[in-house]
Structures are given as C-alpha cells and as structure tokens.
Amino acid sequence: MPEFNLPDVGEGLTEAEIVSWRVSVGDTVQVNDVIVEIETAKSLVELPSPFAGEVTALLASEGETIEVGRPIIAIGEERQAMLVGYGPRAETSARRRRAPAVAASPPDEVTVSRPLAKPPVRKLAKDLGVDLAAIHAAGAIITRAEVEAAAGRHGERGAGATEGMTSGDGDVRIPVKGVRKATAEAMVRSAFTAPHVTEWVTLDVSRTMELVARLKADRAFAGVKVSPTLVVAKAICLALRRTPELNAQWDDEVREIVVKRSVNLGVAAATERGLVVPVIHGADAMSLLDLATAIGELTATAREGRTQPAQMSGGTFTLTNIGVFGVDGGTPIINPGESGILALGSIERRPWVDENDAVVARWVTTLALSFDHRVVDGEQGSRFLADVAAILRDPGLALTY
Amino acid sequence: MNPVQLVTPAGDRTTHAEYAFEGDRAAIESLFRDLVMTRRVDVEAFALQRHGELGLWPPVLGQEAAQVGSARAMRDHDFAFPTYRDHGVAWCRGVDPTWLLGIFRGSWLGGWDPAEHQIALPNIIIGAQTLHATGYGMGLVLEGLVGTGDPERDSAVIAYFGDGATSQGDVSEALDWAAVYQAPVVFFCENNQYAISVPVERQTRVPIAQRADGFGLPGVRVDGNDVLACHAVTERALQRARDGQGPTLVEAVTYRMGAHTTSDDPTRYRDAAEVEAWQAKDPIERVRLLLVTEGTPAAFFAEVEAEADALGARLREACRQIPEPELAELFDHVFVESTIENRQQKAEHIAWRDAIEGSVA
Fold first, then answer.
1. Considering the domain A3-177 in this protein, what is its CATH number?
2. Would you kindly state where each structural domain of chain A is located, as residue ranges?
3. Which of residues 198-227 of A touch B (CB under 8 A)?
4. Nearest chain A Cα to B105, which residue?
5. A35-49, A109-123, A359-373 — which one is most confidently predicted on average?
6. Given this model, what pLDDT does residue A113 score?
7. Residue B224 — pLDDT band, cuts 50, 70, 90?
8. Does domain A180-400 correspond to CATH entry 2.40.30.10?
9. CA distance A16 to chain B (A)
10. Mean pLDDT across the stretch A344-352?
11. In chain B, where do the E strands start and end?
C-alpha cells in the first residue's frame, strides 16, 4: 500500500502541522488532487497526492505536528486490514463512506458495530497485529495506550516527547528518549566522574538592577533583551580572565587539563522538549550588545525547539538561571567536558544591612558555583565566585578587568 | 510608456503603429501549444516538489507568454541565457524538462549541452547572465557573425532577467558595455513585479524600459502577458542585433502569479485583490479566446490538453527515474582538462567514501 511521507516543502524544514484533511478514508483521489493542508514554520501549504486510488488510512490527526519523512496518508489497496470488524463490502462505489446502519446493507454490516479509533491508532493496531474489535475500550474511542496494552507493548511510542502512558495501575510511564535521555546520560556521566564542589554567595545586586534598567532605556539596546542574566554572563566572562582554570577541561584520556582559549558560554534554557543548553561561542570577545543579541537569539531558537546539535556543543562554562523558577539556589551539576557552572537564584527585595548598619530593602540574590575539584581548588573557585559577585555588586568594577 | 499590445485580455486583436504579429492562425496555435506545455511543466513540477520529489521549484505561472513569445522569436543559431525561472524558454529551445527537474531535485548541476540547444544552463546568480550574454555577443561580433547580411550567418543573443536584477551592478555594466560596443544582445526583462517580496517600486523610479535611454540603447515596453506582442517586439529586437544595429532592452510587463519559489508564501506581502486583477489578464486564456474567434476547431484544444496530460504523466515518471547523483563526478567538471591535484582529490574522495560504505556494510 503506497504511503505518502510528509515532504520538506521549504528547504530544510523538519516538521509540519496537519491543519486540515481534504479527504477521508474511502475517498478516491487522482494524482495531484489536494489531500491535506499543512502549516510549516514558513507558510500554509496544500499538498497534492502523488498517488491515485482509494484513501485507506489517514495516519496523522488534524492539529498533530509530524516530522518530515513520516507517512501521513495511505492510498491504495488493503482496505480490509484497516477496517477491522467490517465484513467485505458489497458496494464497489468509491464515494465517501456512509454510516454502516443503512437499510440496504447486508445483515452482517448492520449487526457488527465498528470499533471507534483515530486513524493513527488504527494504523498502530494494524502494525502490531491487534484486532480493534477485541479491545474493551474504557471510553467510546479506543486509545493508543489500549492498543499498545493489548499488544503487550508498554512503554513504546512513536511520537510525542513528554506525555506519558497510563498503565493499568494509574502510574504514568514516560519513555526515556530525546532530550530527556541526553540530559540523563550527561548528568550521570558528570556527577559520577567529576567530584563536584558547590559554593554559595548571597549578595546585593541593586546596582546591577539599576544598570539593567538604564540599558533597557538605552537606544543602542532597543530590540534586544536586557536582563540580569546578561550582566551575569558578562561578569562570568570577565571573572574568567582572572581565573581561567574555571574555563578548562579535564582530558581524562591523556591526563591533561586543557585551559580553553576562549569562553564558549552555555546558557541553560527550559524548553518544551526539556533542558537545552545552547552555547555562545567566543562570548568573552563580545561586547555587551553582541552578547545580549546572542543570548536572545539562542534562547529563542531553543524555546522554538530548533536548536541544532552543533549549537549545543563546544561549551566551556555554563550559566543557569534557576531564579526564574522562584528559587534561591541549588547545587548545579557541571556539563560534561566543562569545569564550572554558575546558578543564578531569584532576585528579590530583601532586608539588607547597609554600610551604616541600617536595615534597608535591597535587590538580593544568591549565586551558586559548582566546579570540578579535579581541575580547580577552593582557592580558584572561591576567587572566581567572589569576582563575579563583586562585579554584580558594583558593575563599575568591570572597568578594572 | 504604454506597453505594446496586440491582443487584449478579452482575446480581441488590437493594432499598433510599429509592431504587428506576422504569423497566421497555425503560428498562433503553435504558440498556444507551447504556452500550455510550459504551464503544464510548471504545474507538474510544483506538485512534484509538494510530493517531496524536488527540493525546490521556482514557478513560472503567469509569465508563460513573455517566455514563449520571446524564445519563439529566436532563430536556431541565436543563443539564450536564461534565469532559473525560464522554464518556458528552455521548453521552446527543445530542452527536455526532465533536465530542469534534475537540477531542482539536486541530482545534477546543470545537465543539457548548451551548444546543442543554443541555450545556457539556468543562472541562479541574479543578473550575472547579462554579462555572459554580452560577452557571447562580443564573440559573435569578433567571429564575424553579425551584420553580414546573410540570414544563415547573422546571429544574436538574448539575456533573460527579472525586475529585481535591474538593481544589480552586473546588469548596468552589461547594458553599458553592450550599448558602447553595439553588441548584438537583446536584454529581455521579465518584470513580474516582485523580487521575492520586494515590489518593483523599490527597484526603480522610472519604467525599466526607460532606463535604456541613459545607457544609449532603445527600450521597449511590451505587454508580457500577450504572446503575440512579445513575439513581435523580440523578433524586431533580435533582427536589429543580427543586423549589427546593436542591443535593445525589452521590458515585458507581467506578473508572477505564484510564489517566488515553493519555499515562499506570497500572501504575506501582497493582496488577494492584486493577484485577482492579474488573473483576469491570463496569458493563455486570451490566446484561446482569440483562436476560438478565428476559427480553431475544438478538437485542437482537446488535442493540446491530451498532449499536456501525457507530458505531465511522463514528467512524474521521469522525475522518479532520475538516477541518484554520483558525488565523485563533480571532480570531472572542475576543469576541461583535469589536473594532477584534481585527480588526486577525486581519488581521495573515492577512498574516503568507500571506507565509510565499507564500514557500514
């Protein structure tokens, strides 16, 4: 049975959303009849059929996002296999299929109730050799999970990254793949090879917040996102000049410490796909404006789920802003291949004792630095963290680096 | 500058003080056939891209008359330099459209032998082919193939380009050189109103044809959706060139009905009303109406339609039969006569490729 795989209609697209089907199962189509409308990152596009024949299955639902190369429709023979529960059809008409309970239909078609399932689920049932009629569905429509349960294939799924599958006891089992899998492997590798040390410092960042407000109003920075993260990123680059040991790699194979020439700063971003860490290469050589632009572009790309593997590799130090989730601090785990990671906690108004011993409301945050103790000792780690803190306390100190 | 028009959108003939179409009904039917085939090649290729068979396709829809009218005015020994959208020009020069499919499938870099069909490979670099055409024209002059009075000998060259290309320095240089040296070049601008999303108002303050004045060559504006007018105007311009009277700039005013390419979404930058207004000026429909008026039997149209259907089916099949490209062959096309280094690089590539394929197996 010929299947039509979702084409790349726009030079390098990886996926598209099924907007609306123009045909139904049972319709007869000619070559180049429009069968479906899809929406890509670039535009709405109508797809013409490459085949002539009867539509035997729609393999994707409206609203579903499909990867390029996956089959979306089957056109041609093998009708019976897709219509489990039906007897052979007497009519040969290629018209749109009507409801089964038609007076003129043969008796067996009237009595057999057709199990309801969406096209992709029917396809799955067919692939797994599951008889839909034999499934006792919990609801009116047989679900993918029920088909998989019937086939005894828990935990295997074709698509969908985050949603889990409910098993009989109500627990949700989520397949480990994609970004989750990559993250898990990286964290285990790092946590059990690099001896982590974590240090904290809590500080008054009111002057950094003033600087952020000033830059936001600056015309040169119009159009780019100015945030405390940006200033922290810059402070990291400056502090690494004095303590390049934090910008180094433990090369286990040759037993060497590789001090990296430039700072390739990873910026962790929470996305729908999971944790993604796009890397800004040569961050130390960038002006503040360039850095802001780079952070904005990379995080936007990450949030859209379009970060390419190359954009996530080659990092030498990582910044993670866990403050956006409203927490004060944590003990971050180093990205494998790097020697340090700095976590920025939430920035809040807190009581602070100023130089006159008065308690005043100030913008306060906590920085947490984890470093690889194979590469760096407490001396360098502490100096680096203190330097970052000093710059954030008084951004004017940046001039001294 | 009113464009030269010989057939109205309603299919009625009009007269023009300087230009007339010299052919009979059979000649118009022949042009009609090429218009329909060009459109079918385009429709089929567009669908093949949507089937996932082509990486990209720049549709010609709406510009068929400009291409067919001008290309059919060429003699066999004239030479054309087309753009990537001039599928109708290639068709009229006898190029099998499968070659075009192969280019946009990424299966080969060019394909046909330019000398065999007297048409160069499609130029992707915007406007660069106007320089190639001017150089070719200079070659014709130096070889004594211009202005001899012998119709078997005298030759011309035609360069196709778009409205956007007129902003390229290459095009200005080509126009200037050709005018100064009276090169036998017809500069045929298909003004389809848009350079991707940029409207022609952003390319020039005056009609494109008027820019010829500054370079010192004649400029003619023609209704680019009128195949008879395009034929008449281009024929005159080519004859001037062959006769040694120098270059002409022809501006064919037309409209790109479709997207810039299959990757483009024109609804983002132009109104439906504008597209609809041009739809009413369709280049094929007006010729069909004219032929009906002049007595062409219905059987002719049915025959052309059947021929187009067969062409479409053949192209679909041919597209899928195009062999996968052999990357190592690239090295054979770098030099006319290969060098030691080039042969070494080819050998290294093959060794590397085989090593990978070996490890997979």
1. 2.40.50.100
2. 3-177, 180-400
3. none
4. A11
5. A359-373
6. 57
7. very high
8. no
9. 13
10. 94
11. 79-81, 157-162, 185-191, 194-195, 198-199, 219-223, 248-253
